[in-house]
Amino acid sequence: MAETSWTTRTMQNGNILQIPFRRTHNITLSEPIKKYIETKYDQHPDTFARDLQIIDQLRKDAVNSLEPHSSGLAKLQQYAAQLVYMSGKFPIDIGVDFAWLPSLGYHGNHAHTENNIRFELANVYFNLAAMYSQLALASNRATSDGLKSAAANFCFAAGVLSYLKTSIIPELRSAPPEEMDTFTLEGLEALMLAQAQECFWQKAVKDGLKDASIAKLAAKVSDLYSEAGDWALKSNSISSPWIHHMNAKHHHFAAAGQYRAACDCLEKRKYGEEVARLRDSLACVNLALKENSYINRAVQADLNGLRTRVQEDLKRAEKDNDTIYLVPEPHKSELKVLDRASMVSARVPKEVSHSQEMLGDHGALGRPLFAKLVPYSVHVAASIYADRRDWLVNQHIIAELEAMTMRIQDLLSNLNLPGSLQALEKPLGLPPSLASHADEVRQANGVHKLHAIVADTDKLKQNVRQMYQDGVDLLRTEAGEDEAARRKFGTERWTRLTAANAVPKVISQVNDIDGYLKQADTSDRLVHEKMRENESLIRLLGGTDRDLEDYVPSSRRATMSAKVERAANTLRATLNEVTRLESRRRKRVDVLKTKAKDDDVLPDLLRETSRLEREYPMQPIAAAQFETLFDTRLEKYDADTTEVKTEEAELEALGQRIRQANQAFQTAKQTGDSSTGGGRETALQNLENAYSTYKQIIRDLDTGRTFYNSLGGIVSRFRDDCRNFVYTRRTEAQRMEADVSDAMAGLQLQQQNSENLLARKQAQGQAQQQQQYRQSQHPQPNHQTYHQHAPPQARMMHHEALQAPMPQRPQQQPPPVTSVQSPVPVPAAPQHTTWQEGMPILFGGQAGASTKANGMSQPVDGRWDPAQGVRFVSR
């Protein structure tokens, strides 16, 4: 039982390691998120003002939770859950530079910075694991409940590290930051599990379990510490003291396991095996104590206490076995390997593994922020679906129905129908069908309506062209400014990309939009040409009935035989069928357009987005993920496609009946006396063709107006993109120009200084050459005398290469200068020259000189007078 008090004491003295917190700087997330919403979404950022405040507060609370407390645990979990949720709403490089300082290893002052939401999430999870480890260390491990709580927190710490390693780091899209490589995370996870297992071993000792059970627990602790140490050796972040600690703990619990196994052998009267296991336990303790210089005092006390206990028991066991039991001691290799009893595993907290399920209005982790923000990819997906739906409806269904109408009209026009039949049925006045068509054109204001639609379309086209030209002019201006700066500063200094390489998507839109406009011009010319060719007849249709009657000549009333009348009735019934089918197609087109207009895919997209965000929280939403949804929704138009094929078959049969009926009608007219005036027949047919052309022009003009409205939105976004790009480029150019100008100014200053130094050295060299030349021409015999009589300080000053004398304040009692004699006599009118190397230093007065005052000669003090200054005399 002595081991119980020993282990309790050592656990309280801090022989367990905790993961320190990583630290960061205070930053604001709301501003970059607000800017991203403003530029990338159709929703206003002010809608999410409250969410922006909350996310800033959540980060502030999370990064400042640096004390082991359950409240800090909740703050980290809430912030991490929101980051996971936001990963589906925003790109990982949202524009925030997250800077974090490492907590392990030897580079604690070097911050790692990334514009990456997942990098931020990885650091938050690392701190969450650190929080769990520190909560475990803060638990009261003197009690059984405290030990259980500590073990659970260590298991949670290992689980968070495992989740970080398997789920977060692989999705980082960059190299793992320091302390988050595989080796480091594996080592920390094994360390947390080892310390959790140690808590269970401690509880077993405290509860007085059997020695055999305690030995199994200790053996597993030893294995986990060994695994942690192996991973730590491969890591560049785990420091040497931690590695030595793990190694010592590995041998420590190997010794503790053997010691407990020896106690079990004593109880089972296996005296020889008891001695062998005690001896092996002592060897393990001695191996652990080799780390004595690197481990803390708590671990040292643990090992010393265990060694003392093992030594005492070994001494007693050897004595008893040698004197009493005489059981042979087995070799170490013959001992059975201890069984292992693992009580721990990495447990991922549900707040981490199922964080998205715990977000909600009443969720444990709070409501999800920016929940009403529709991801940009969803808008893209909705646009893609709308394009596919419109293409299917307009090109495969409506276009086919309209093509059928055009084909049947062409057939009737080629057969001169219904003009030939109308001329026979009503030789006088206007046929009812023609009168109905004329009334329709008249009510729609005919030609004036066409010209109004053309004018509106031209105005739309002009606006689109102006916006397009504005964008192109902006890009052209920016390209000129960039090229001018490149010529001014050179390509080596002006290193930024050209517009074509910086924004290839915007540049490609220039040619795309230009192609759209050219195609539209071609279509407009065709419509206008058709309108000019038929304008007179359309104007006639929109005029009065008298004008129509004047245009359509009357013919004599023909006598129709029974055969001609039957053929005419058959043909009239066939033409009525054409009108009926055409009316049905128009109704079908209107219903189909309404169906497509009401086909709102956004609710289904939002439901699918919510499902994807729950199932794949770390995966950003992409438009490609909705392909299955698109296919399912477009199946609702399969029935319409089938009806088009049925309509096509009916039209083919009807066309065949029209040909047959017209052939029978023409044959009957020729055999009987049923001829009509050719002029009336031609006029009626011309008016029928003009009416058909009028309807086609109306459809073409409506299509063109719709096209320019749609293209206007595209061109408007193109112009806005050009404006934003040019503004950004000009701001960037100003900054780069300032940097380059500063660098060039510094380079010029450096070059000027170098030139000045070079010129000074050349001048000094020339002066030395001149001095050497003068010395060789004029030797100075009294130079040696000067050296012999000058004091040591003067001789030293003479030999030093003085660059320039520095005037100094005279001392209170300057030493007398008595024997300083100039080798060159001072002239009566001294010339002040520049001092050069090798020249002596002479003071204002000389020893032994005298001055005349009032006619009397007075001696002059030989000491230097500061008032007379310092002058240099050439030699």
Describe the structure.
There is one protein chain. Mean pLDDT is 82; it is low at 1-13, 782-832 and 845-857. The longest helix has 100 residues, at 678-777. With 875 residues, this protein is mainly alpha-helical. The chain is elongated, with a radius of gyration of 51 Å. Helix 1 (2-12) packs antiparallel against helix 11 (297-325) and helix 10 packs antiparallel against helix 11 (297-325). The two termini are 102 Å apart. The strands form three sheets. Strands 1-2-3 form a three-stranded antiparallel sheet, with helices on one face. The protein is built from 26 helices and seven strands. The relative contact order is 0.07. The protein has four domains: 21-180 and 348-373, alix/aip1 like domains (Serine Threonine Protein Phosphatase 5, Tetratricopeptide repeat); 182-342, Serine Threonine Protein Phosphatase 5, Tetratricopeptide repeat, CATH 1.25.40.280; 380-415 and 559-675, Four Helix Bundle (Hemerythrin (Met), subunit A); 430-548 and 694-752, Up-down Bundle (Butyryl-CoA Dehydrogenase, subunit A, domain 3).
